[in-house]
Every structure is written in C-alpha cells, then in structure tokens.
Specification:
Order of helices and strands of chain A: EEEEEHHEHEHEHHEHEHHE
Radius of gyration of chain A: 19 Å
CATH architecture of chain A: Alpha-Beta Barrel
Distance between the termini of chain B: 39 Å
Strand content of chain B: 5-15%
Number of helices of chain A: 9
Structural class of chain A: alpha/beta
Number of strands of chain A: 11
Shape of chain B: globular
Helix content of chain B: 40-55%
Helix content of chain A: 25-40%
Strand content of chain A: 25-35%
Oligomer: heterodimer
Number of domains of chain A: 1
Largest sheet of chain B: 5 strands, mixed
Shape of chain A: globular
CATH superfamily of chain A: Aldolase class I
CATH class of chain A: Alpha Beta
CATH topology of chain A: TIM Barrel
Largest sheet of chain A: 9 strands, mixed
Radius of gyration of chain B: 26 Å
Strand order of the largest sheet of chain B: 3-4-5-12-11
C-alpha cells in the first residue's frame, strides 16, 4: 500500500499560507542547507533519538523515540479531515512541507488528489529541487506554491545547500508559465543570503516573472539549536542570535520599492 | 478618558477595602426594637431594609455623575450578620491576610464583640443551615466532594431585565396594590402569605424612592456651596434626576443609568446575594434613550461615554462582601461577578449589536478596571467587526471581554422550557451561567468534585485522605473485570453524592424561602409580584438550580488511564497502581511516565480520550438533570469551577493521570494544564464533543501569547477559531493573552505589577492577588503560540 513518511503534523499553523492550516512535514530532503530549521526532516528514513520526559525538574523517564511515522493516504486524510471546519471558516487548508514533499511524489500526488476532491485548499512548500516531471504531476492539484529561493549565484547555492540551483530556477519559470499562484520564500540568513548582490539578483529574478510578485521573508532564528544536538548534527549557527522583525524592515522596504508584496514570516 | 474620569478611576483603584459596620449596626438596631417581632417575616425584612436605607450615610464622591454608595465611602464593605456572622477571629484574618484583605478598625471589632455577635449568634442563616443538613452531607462537604454556595451568601444569581426602563416604582406600587386587592381569601390558602409578601414589596419599593430623595437633598446641599458653575449645574441636574427616578420611569439615558444604580444598591444592601446584581443587556437597555437623545442633540456621544465611565467606577467601588472561616481557596477575590452583556440577539431574533455596544467596548478598553466584568454575546447574526473589536481589547491582555455564543445560550434556555423571547432577552451572568434575564432565578448550589468521586470509587468508597468510609462500598479496584464494570461503580458513587447534595439543597432552599425573603429583589424579577411570591420562594417565572461539575479534564484523563493501562493493556496491576498513588509516585517514576506521556489525553481531538469524557458527562447529567427543586423548578448541570478546582485538588491524592497529590484539577472544560499538545483547534474540537446545549454553561479557557493576535491576519484567525467553536455549539471561550515571562516577572516583583489583570476562570482578577498555586497554574496553561 502507498505510504508516506511524515515527521510532524502541526495544527493551527499560521505561517504556512492563508488562514488556519495544518502543516504536514514530509521526511527526507535533497538539500542540506547550513541553516536548516528542520534538520530532523533531512534524512529520508526513520531516525531514533533519545528523549527525556520531565515533570517539574525531575526526569521520570528516558526513552528512545522514532522520528518519522508512516501514514497511508487514508490515515493522513483522516488527520486532515479533523480540521476541515477551521479551513472552511478561516480560508485555510493544508500545507505540505518538509523536508521536501516532492521527494515522495506518489504519496503527495495521491493526497493532493483526495484534498482536491474534498475541496480543501492545498499549498506545497518546496525547495524547488525536483524533476520537472514530478512538478508537472502535482501542479494541477496544488492551489499555492511556497517556493524557496535562497541564493541566485549557483556556486554560493552549492556551497550552502549542497546542490545546484539550475533545476530550481527552471522549475520556477515553468510554474510561472502555468500561471500558478506562487509565493517566494526567502530565508534571510546573516552573512549568507542577505548580501546586497544576492538581493539585487533576487529582484532581477522576480522581474522576469510577471505573475510572481509576493515575497515572504523568513528571518533567521535559532530555535532549531536543540534539534541539532538531539540529532547529533553540526550546527553552523551555534551562537548566532535570532533576528527580529525590526531588523527586516529595511529589506522589506527595499523590496517593496521594487513593486513586490512583502510579508515577514511566511 | 477626560481628566475628571481619570481622577474618579484613580480614587476608586486607590481606595482601600475596609469593613463598614454601619449596616450591621442599623440592622441590629431594628431587630432589637421591641415591636420587631410583631411583623411577619417578609414585612420585618422590608422594614429592616427601610431602616438601613433611611439612616445610612449618604456619600457623594468628587466629580461623579452617578451617585450612591453601599458603604460609608468607596470600598467600605458592609457585613450581613443575618446571613453569616463574622467572628472576631474572622475579622482579624480579613484584616491581616496578605491577599484580598479588608481593613478592620478597632472600633468595628469592639462593636462586633459587644453588640453584633451577642445578638446574632446562632441566628444566622449559616447557623441554621449547618443545624439542619444531614451528617452525611456534612461529611461529604468537609471531605471536598462538594461546596455549598448559600452558606455565606444568599441566593441571587440573577440579572435585571428591561422592566425598570419602562416603569417607575410608583407604577410598581400600583401593580402591587392591585394584586393585594385581588387576593382571594376564600379559595387561596396562601392568600395571607401573599399579602404579607406583597406588603413587604411595597415597603421596599417606597424605600428606594425615599433613598433616592435623600441623595437629592444631599446633592442640593453640595450645589449650594459649589464654586464651579458647571459642576453646580451638574449637581442640580443630578438632584433633579434623584427626585424623579426611581419613582417615575426614566426618560433619559442619564436617568436610566442612575435608576439602575439605585436598584443595584438596593439589591446588594438588602442581602449579600451571589454575583451582586447585574444590568445584563446594558447596550440594549440604553440604546433607545441614546438614539433618541443623540438624534435630538440633547446628548453627545462623548458625554454618553463619560456617564458610562462614571457608572463603571461605581461597580469598582463595591468589592464582594468578605466571607467567614478559611474559605479563601474556594473563591478569593474582590470581584463580585457583575457581568455586562453586549450584542447578541433582540427578542425578535434579529442582530442586536448597536452603537452603544461599541461605545461600551470603548469604555471597557479605556477603563481597564476590575469591575464590572464584561462579555460579548456572539450570534451567527452578529458582524465580524463586533467580534474583532472585542478581540482587539482581549489582545491587550486584560482578560475582558469574554466571548459567549448567543445561539447556544438561547438553545440551552429553550431546551429548559423557556419561551424563545425570554431566552433571547437572556444571556450569561456570574462566570458563564445562562439565564433568562428579568424572569429567572437560576441558583448555583455548589461545585461538585467529579475527580474526588473517582478517587473514592478506586478505593471502595473510602477516602484515602482520612481513611473514612465516605461513599458507598462499590468494590475494590482489583475486583473489577472490565472498564465498563468500573464505570458502573463510578456512576453509583456519583449518584450517591448527587442525592446527598440535592437532599441538602432541598433543606437550604426552604430555609431561605421561610427565613430570608428578599422583597426588594422580588420587585424586579417577574412574576414575583403577579404570583405574590418571594424570589427565594419560587416567585420567578423560571426557577432553576444548578450543580457545577468540576475537574472534567482530570477525571477523564484518569479514567482513560485506567481503561488503557489497567483494564485493556494490563500495563499496570490494580495493587501496584494504588501503591504508586499512595506514594505520590515516589519510586514509581516509570508508571508516572506511562500515565503522563504515553496515555491519550482529553483536549487533543482524540476520540479514544474524548469518548470517556462523554461518558462522564452523561453520568453526571443523568444524576442531576431534570430533578425537581422545592420551588417548582428543575435541576440542571453546569461545567465551571471559578477557583474551586484548586481547593478540590487540594483534597485529592495522586491520580492515574499522573497528577501529583493536592495539585489543582483541570478547570472548567479546559484540558488538564499543559496536556493539550495539538493546538487550540484540537482543544475546541474536544470541548465541542460535550453536548453544550444540555448544560447551562461551560467554561473554556485558552491562553495565547500576544504575538498570535498582533497583526490583522492573526486576529482574523483567532476570530475564525471562535466562529468554528461556536458553530459546534461551544458555549463560551475566553482568552488570556499574556506572556509567561511577564507573569514570572510579576511573581518575582509583585509591586511592579499590581495593575496586571488576568483572566482567571469566568472572571478577571489582579494577578498579584491570586494565590501562588493559582499563579502557577495560569503560567502553566499551555501557550498556544506558533512555536509550540
């Protein structure tokens, strides 16, 4: 039976598209961004990590916990259905995120189909790193793409994410041609993505697509620091403080001056 | 807010709560008169009321536009020795306690010692109640199985309708005289009782007119010496109002407000009724006056607002009367639970939101004082703008207004047998109780500890705290072969205690009907005059008695744990479980981990847990709902705790949900503190699995960090969450919008946070006045922020 590996379901998500949303996190990602906020989503298989249960300051148990739960389409749809009333009242829906949802294309396609039948709004939050063929399969079933653009310079992109951005940019162009609703998500990472050169090239990129004019700025934050430790991974940004909204205001104004709609935080 | 209101607000906040002995003295003076015993009880009560109001101090505060104080000055709070008599030790506790203190002067103590205590000892309602109730009742009461509302305060729990805005008290008197004339002494065996009651009402009505007149005289005196020309004019205008109303019907907005306030004072001086008194649908009552005068140019919106602000200050000047004994944990607040209702529906079922609804929301936002409390009634017919305006106040972290579902309240009331028009004129009062305003007596009789009853069931009826056989023997835990068997035992125990509670209630109701009639309050609640019957004796059109279930989340989680871990998976044996609970999990960490972290919890939209909650609901509902009261009404259930979940928790050992001994229970229908891990949507979905329509009110508390409502999109999402919950018939939801960090700071430096008001449970209170346990609990309540 068709199954998908999911590492989290987040209800009442408010930063992953319009309205009240359920965000489904797919496990497995082809990228390895230095600043990854969901490092537990990178590896494509189930991972076992230790977890301490505390009551007050007392540890009552230490458990090994599996990260990544296998769902059938029906099982996931059942979870999605629980929140339909909230979707209806708020104009919300489901967001498929990760990891990279398009790493599990059959499962994603099947779930999107079911959502379409149930008239549930869908968003796919993607790195854009997938084959055009996969993208084509799901485009018609998806209402909104949250499309990550990190670095325009390919060498920089390779350095920071481990992969080339060529296919990503090709895919974005294709989506634009289909006249799909796309919001570009741009992580603002101090010293990596926030250089004026990169920002300028980002503006040039948006100039090429008439129908892509909404950018969501994702400020760097370090809430993932604990996760890196638990998963035994190296954290490049150990001591980097989280950014606040105010720090993003100049960039927001700059992009707005370029006739872009800019939101902070998704 | 203009300077004058700022000053009144400051004076009110700065005034020190103190005990005023004036009422107790005047009451005792009257009762000691030689001929006092020659009157019937209702007439004696009315004459005592008259004696108090004609002799008490008249107080006019600086700059105020609405006059009348219950005590000798703001926050000077009277005692009610005929209801419950404070001992000298009680007075010393009140004077010395760290929180919610009342200053007691030596003079007050001396008068109490020499006059009040000697006269009233053994005669108070509290004394009578404890003499009359059964030993079983007393044992359950002392063990924390239930509380009793009427042992220190009188039945009230009601709200004024629209009668006073149509009629002056002289018209009331005409109506009373007609009723007396029509009494049939040949056929009606109660004719004499009715005559005495109606005579008492007439005395009470006349008294309020005379009391207002005393204010007119005082205001004219002030006007004579007033230097400021504008204030002089105002004082004279106020004097004219006090000469006109309450004798005549109000014709202006100002007169309407002053009339209400005199009635309010009358009700809270006659006795110390629960939830003080309440104008209820204030926006509906004021709107016709407001519209007429604003259109005619005789009233500006600004002055209309100032009048409301001055009115607000009056509520804040009147703390809840202090209790006796150590009942601080049960309910410990200056708030007296007057809950202003805004919005909802008109009697014809159309949208009732009007300009005054918004004006009052402005007042709530600007005043930010403890009293009165406020809520919006939200119907599907009300606009989103109204809800969002309210949420914009909620997000400032002041805990008001709370949000109620009009459509559900109306269905609840209609299900209980009320006319739909009466239901639409109703709303919620106190914490969250549904009522038909102006026509219903809906008495809360006591909190009922659903979790304690589970503890007793697990121990074959024995209270592990004392070793006493408190309940019936329904079998040892190890003797049950299935969860269904166990639930049957729980049902029997619950039924047993519901019977004991209702047995006591039936006695207490009759004691109030006989010994403490309230002819003044009876004037305003229909159909007391028409029936010639007192409010306390069943005179209201509708009579309802409530028992309020507490700890729904805690009892559910514990039962789910028994079901899964003991009966279904066998992950624990009955004896080991009881040992672990007895040891408060010391040395049983694995078991506590299983209970806390590996067992489904209510509040996460998990059917396996929520279905158990539904079974508990049915058992409680069936034990109480529909049973007759002694006033011709019916028993109903509510699910609200005020702060009793803390007291009740302190009377229970460790439980199979992993909760430690003596810790607070879950409050209202909220999940156990911190166990809701699937977001606020899952919480409201679990809560909506309760059949709210079959209750008379439920309380759901949600804590949000301010960020969630910071921008319009965030606010819209919360608004749609409310709409979704209400579509599922949820009765009420309230939001505490505050950051845990702020609360920690307030705990560490209370002196810097004295003004911090948070939503507790059905009401708001100063955070620093809460007990440490309650403070901890509020901090613990899950923060449904994005980073959950």
């Amino acid at each position: 039976m068709l199954k998908g590996l999911i590492f989290d379901l987040k209800r009442f998500a408010v930063h992953d598209g319009p309205g009240i949303r359920l965000t489904v996190f797919f496990k497995g990602c082809p990228l390895k961004c230095l600043w990854c906020h969901n490092p537990e989503g990178i590896q494509a298989g189930v991972q076992v990590v230790s977890k301490e249960n505390r009551i007050g300051s007392r540890v009552v148990a230490c458990r090994m916990e599996e990260v990544g739960l296998s769902y059938t389409v029906d099982q996931l749809i059942k979870e999605i259905e629980k929140d339909v009333l909230f979707f209806d009242d708020s104009g919300g829906g489901v967001t498929f995120s990760g990891g990279e949802p398009m790493m599990q294309p059959d499962f994603l396609e099947a779930v999107l189909k079911r959502c379409r039948e149930m008239e549930i709004h869908t968003a796919v939050d993607t790195s854009g790193f997938t084959t055009l063929e996969t993208l084509k399969r799901i485009t018609g079933l998806t209402d909104l793409f949250l499309f990550d653009i990190k670095l325009i310079d390919n060498e920089d992109h390779k350095f920071c994410t481990g992969v080339s951005n060529k296919q990503i940019l090709t895919n974005l162009k294709w989506l634009s041609k289909q006249n799909k609703q796309v919001i570009i998500r741009f992580p603002v990472i101090p010293g990596f993505t926030d250089s004026q050169a990169n920002i300028n090239r980002l503006k040039q990129l948006t100039d090429r697509f008439e129908n892509i004019n909404h950018i969501a700025l994702l400020p760097f934050h370090n809430i993932a620091a604990g996760k890196y430790e638990r998963f035994g991974m190296k954290n490049t940004f150990d001591d980097e403080p989280s950014m606040n909204q105010e720090q993003l205001l100049p960039l927001k104004a700059d992009l707005e001056a370029h006739n872009l709609k800019v939101t902070i935080g998704g | 807010m203009n300077e004058r209101i700022q000053q009144q607000r400051k004076d009110s906040i700065d005034a020190v709560e103190r005990i005023s002995v004036e009422r107790a003295e005047l009451l005792t003076d009257f009762y000691q008169q030689q001929d006092a015993d020659s009157y019937s009880i209702p007439v004696k009560r009315a004459l005592a009321f008259r004696h108090i109001l004609l002799n008490k101090t008249i107080r006019i505060n600086q700059g105020e536009l609405i006059v009348g104080e219950r005590g000798t000055e703001p926050k000077a709070t009277p005692t009610y020795p005929e209801v419950c008599l404070h001992s000298i030790e009680d007075l010393e506790v009140l004077d010395g306690r760290e929180k919610v203190a009342f200053k007691v002067s030596d003079r007050v103590k001396t008068i109490y010692q020499e006059r009040i205590i000697p006269f009233w000892k053994g005669k108070s309602m509290r004394d009578r109640i404890f003499r009359e109730v059964s030993d079983e009742w007393k044992a359950a009461y002392e063990a924390g199985v239930f509380t009793e509302f009427q042992e220190q305060r009188t039945p009230g729990h009601t709200v004024l309708g629209d009668k006073i805005y149509r009629l002056g008290l002289r018209q009331f008197i005409v109506e009373i005289e007609q009723q007396i004339d029509q009494l049939d002494f040949m056929e009606d065996i109660e004719a004499l009782d009715k005559r005495e009651e109606l005579t008492a009402m007439k005395i009470a009505a006349k008294t309020l007119v005379d009391f207002a007149e005393r204010h007119a005289v005082e205001l004219e005196k002030y006007a004579e010496t007033e230097q400021d020309r504008q204030r002089k004019q105002e004082l004279l205008a106020m004097a004219a109002i006090c000469r006109k109303i309450p004798g005549e019907a109000p014709e202006t907005y100002w007169e309407a407000l002053q009339y209400y306030w005199f009635v309010h004072l009358g009700v809270i001086t006659e006795t110390n009724p629960w939830d003080s008194f309440n104008p209820g649908r204030l926006d509906q009552h004021l709107y016709p006056f407001y519209k007429k005068e604003v259109e005619a140019g005789t009233l500006t919106p600004d002055f209309a607002k100032e009048l409301l602000q001055s009115f607000w200050v009056k509520f804040n000047n009147h703390p809840a009367p202090p209790k006796v004994g150590i009942t601080a944990k049960e309910s410990n607040t200056y708030t007296d639970f007057a809950l202003i209702n805004l919005g909802g529906l008109k009697a014809d079922g159309s949208n009732a939101v009007n300009d005054v609804s918004y004006l009052i929301l402005d007042v709530i936002e600007e005043m930010r004082i403890l009293q009165p409390s406020s809520m919006i009634q939200l119907s599907k017919k009300n606009p989103d703008r109204f809800l969002k305006r309210a949420l914009n106040i909620v997000k400032t972290g002041f805990g008001q207004p709370s949000i109620f579902n009009s459509d559900t309240i109306i269905q609840e009331l209609v299900r209980q047998g009320k006319r739909v028009e009466d239901a639409r004129k109703g709303g919620a009062s106190g914490c969250v109780e549904s009522g038909a305003f102006g026509t219903e007596s809906y008495i809360l009789t006591g909190y009922f500890n659903l979790t304690k009853i589970l503890e007793l069931t697990m121990n074959n009826g024995v209270d592990p705290l004392t070793g006493n056989q408190l309940g019936i023997a329904t079998g040892e835990l190890s003797s049950f072969v299935s969860f269904d068997d166990f639930m049957e035992a729980y049902q029997k125990q619950l039924q047993h205690f519901a019977d004991i509670k209702i047995h006591g209630n039936n006695i207490i109701e009759r004691l109030y009907a006989k010994y403490l009639p309230t002819p003044f309050l009876s004037l305003f609640i229909e159909d007391c005059i028409a029936k010639g019957k007192d409010y306390n004796a069943g005179g209201a059109r509708y009579n309802t008695a409530y028992i309020q279930g507490v700890g729904l989340g805690s009892v559910t989680d514990s039962l789910v744990s028994l079901k899964e871990n003991l009966f279904e998976n066998g992950r624990v044996k009955a004896d080991d479980l009881l040992k672990a609970l007895n040891a408060d999990f010391e040395g049983y960490e694995e078991l506590q981990n299983l209970f806390c972290f590996e067992t489904p919890k209510y509040g996460n939209d998990l059917d396996e847990a929520d279905e158990v909650m539904q079974r508990v609901f049915e058992i409680f509902y069936n034990a109480v709902n529909g049973r007759p009261t002694t006033k011709g009404g019916r028993y109903r259930i509510n699910l609200l705790p005020t702060t009793s979940h803390i007291y009740f928790g302190s009377m229970i050992g460790a439980m199979p949900d992993g909760r430690h001994a003596n810790k607070p229970l879950s409050e209202g229908i909220s999940p156990v503190q911190g166990t809701d891990r699937n977001g606020p949507g899952a919480v409201v979905k679990s809560a909506a699995k309760i059949d709210h329509i079959r209750t008379g009110g439920t309380l759901l508390n949600q804590k949000f960090t301010p960020q969630l409502m910071e921008d319009p999109e965030g606010l819209s999402r919360v608004a749609s969450l409310v709409r979704s919950y209400f579509k599922m018939d949820g009765h009420h939801i309230q939001f505490n919008v505050v950051q845990a960090e702020t609360l920690r700071q307030a705990q560490a430096n209370p002196e810097d946070y004295r003004n911090l008001i948070v939503r507790v449970a059905g009401y708001s209170d100063y955070f620093v006045d809460l007990t440490e346990e309650l403070q901890e609990e509020i901090i613990l309540r899950t923060e449904h922020a994005e980073a959950m």
